[in-house]
Amino acid sequence: MIDLHTHTLLSDGELLPSELVRRYKVLGYKAVAITDHIDESNAELIIPKIVAVSKKLSKDSGIKVIPGAELTHVPAKDIKALVKKVRSLGARIVLAHGETIAEPVAPGTNRRAIQCGINILTHPGLITLKDARLAAKSGVYLEITTRRGHAFTNGHVAKIAKLAKAKLVLSSDSHSPDDILKPAFAEKIAMGAGLTKADVSAMHKNAQDIVNKIS
């Protein structure tokens, strides 16, 4: 399994990157992306650190570590420029913090993020069919999350993604050790959203496709 959405104490996570990666390795994951929360205030401070530690951990830990960023509560008008900036700083995968019902994300964030060349729209909440179709057309993946609170709308996301033919990925949005799940349990959460075993297999393939594309 591959997890493309995690956080360390470089933003609001609890673990050092080294411990985070070690925990994923022990559970049998093949790859993990470090995608700490980023806005204009900390991009230049955090992204180079993630890039450097990801390179070292990939070499030393026996698991592929991908440097990334989750653009979080960024004003819609600033998303495009920030996507470009974090990529120029070395982020290989760019996520945008979607309109989860668990936080007061500004309306319109989902659509603008999809338009700006991100890889994954995380926990997109009550995403509209129109926006899901835009994601499908733009090659942006939608997230099924195992994270508490954000997972409340997994069923809606799964349903709308199928209607729109948008591709899904399964991620943890891990912030603490308890969020790092055994692959079999993460898959059960996805199936609890109404997805089938075939859908889960497709999500694993989608994650691998992303890794292959950005590597």
3D structure, described in words:
- With 215 residues, the chain is α/β, with parallel strands linked by helices.
- Helices cover 44% and strands 15% of the residues.
- The protein has eight helices and eight strands.
- The chain has helices at 17-26, 43-61, 79-88, 109-115, 129-138, 154-164, 183-192, 197-214, and strands at residues 2-3, 31-34, 37-38, 64-71, 93-97, 120-122, 141-145, 168-171.
- Strands 1, 2, 3, 4, 5, 6, 7 and 8 form an eight-stranded parallel sheet that branches.
- Strand 7 (141-145), helix 6 (154-164) and strand 8 (168-171) form a beta-alpha-beta unit.
- Helix 4 (109-115) packs parallel to helix 5.
- The radius of gyration is 16 Å and the shape is globular.
- The mean pLDDT is 98.
Ordered list of secondary-structure elements with their pairings:
Blueprint (H helix, E strand, L loop, with lengths): L1 E2 L13 H10 L4 E4 L2 E2 L4 H19 L2 E8 L7 H10 L4 E5 L11 H7 L4 E3 L6 H10 L2 E5 L8 H11 L3 E4 L11 H10 L4 H18 L1
Parallel strand pairs: 1-2, 2-4, 3-4, 4-5, 5-6, 6-7, 7-8
What features would you highlight for this structure?
215 residues; alpha/beta; eight-stranded parallel beta sheet; 8 helices; 44% helix
